[in-house]
Write a structure and sequence with these properties.
Blueprint lengths: L13 H12 L5 E2 H7 L5 H13 L3 E3 L7 E4 L1 H16 L1 H4 L4
Antiparallel strand pairs: 1-3, 2-3
Helix pairs in contact: 1-4, 2-3
InterPro entries: WH-like_DNA-bd_sf, WH_DNA-bd_sf
Length: 100
């Protein structure tokens, strides 16, 4: 896995895990902050916005042209990286901070 400019993206949080699962459930889909927040009512809009902007900064999502609001989609590298991070969290409860 390549190093991230924002290492927090690989640090487990329940909100981030839900966001990643949703992004990966439709990896070709275009997402705005509002779309993703509506899909995840248990996750704050701020967490969605922050995560998407961090993913953008690491070039794991790319802007979709000709949209009124900022709309993003996972890049090929982004799909791969987010899958790797999510898989690591699933395989190792310690990575998530679980004590069990």
């Amino acid at each position: 896995m390549k190093p991230l400019h924002a290492p927090i993206l690989a640090t487990y949080s329940e909100s981030r895990a839900r966001i990643y699962r949703t992004l990966l459930s439709a990896p070709e889909r275009d997402w705005s902050v509002g779309d993703l927040a509506a899909r995840l009512p248990e996750v704050s809009v701020e967490a969605v916005r922050t995560t998407l902007y961090l993913l953008l900064g690491d070039h794991l999502v790319e802007p979709v042209a000709h949209r009124r609001s900022l709309t993003l989609r996972l890049t090929d590298a982004g799909r791969s990286m987010v899958r790797q991070i999510a898989a690591r969290w699933e395989e190792s409860p310690r990575e998530r901070g679980d004590e069990s």
